[in-house]
Amino acid sequence: MGGMLAPKLDQRYTYGEYVTWDDNECWELIDGVAYNMSPAPSRRHQEVAGEIFKQFAVYLTGKKCKVYYAPFDVRLPQGDEEDEDIIDVVQPDIVVVCDKNKLDSKGCLGAPDLVVEVVSPSTGKRDIKQKFMLYERSGVKEYWIVYPEANHVLIFKLDGGKYGVPERYTADDTIEVKLWDDLVIDLSAVFNEEI
């Protein structure tokens, strides 16, 4: 998502407080710190995220896994705390969830199987640092960081509780998604700039 890394005041918040905010803006909580996700993403960001979502959605039609796009709350508890006490709530650009028990009317509770973040100039540092550590700690199996202006994707895969060296893909590549035997993401379509 686009936006500034502007904290909401200088304090820590919980999901219970987060759900009471009605200011027509999108927020995320990382370790209790609130980050404003406004303004709206760029056209390029929307095109890239939309094409990735479309390819996942077409493949997952009729399968047990579901794909969602922002805004969609992903609550990542650090232990067995109550829902309202969770201090990590993010809205990734795209999430894939295969365990239906993690889905509820509020979004996803627990680690999705796959998360895609499409980098904006104002969110890049957070995507590669804070969210990287959060997704690794929470057990997200695959974390994709997509750079729409540079036309490349970094994919981190969880191995022994840690993300290893990322796989790097460019606009000429296809990605064989290891979570399924026959899903291939065509990056030439993702990074198409013919308009």
From TrEMBL:
> Entry's InterPro entries?
Nuclease_put_TT1808 (IPR012296), Restrct_endonuc-II-like (IPR011335), Uma2 (IPR008538)
State the Pfam families in the record: Uma2
Show where the Putative restriction endonuclease domain sits. 17-177
PANTHER family, A to Z = GLR1098 PROTEIN, RESTRICTION ENDONUCLEASE DOMAIN-CONTAINING PROTEIN-RELATED
Q: What is this protein called?
A: Putative restriction endonuclease domain-containing protein
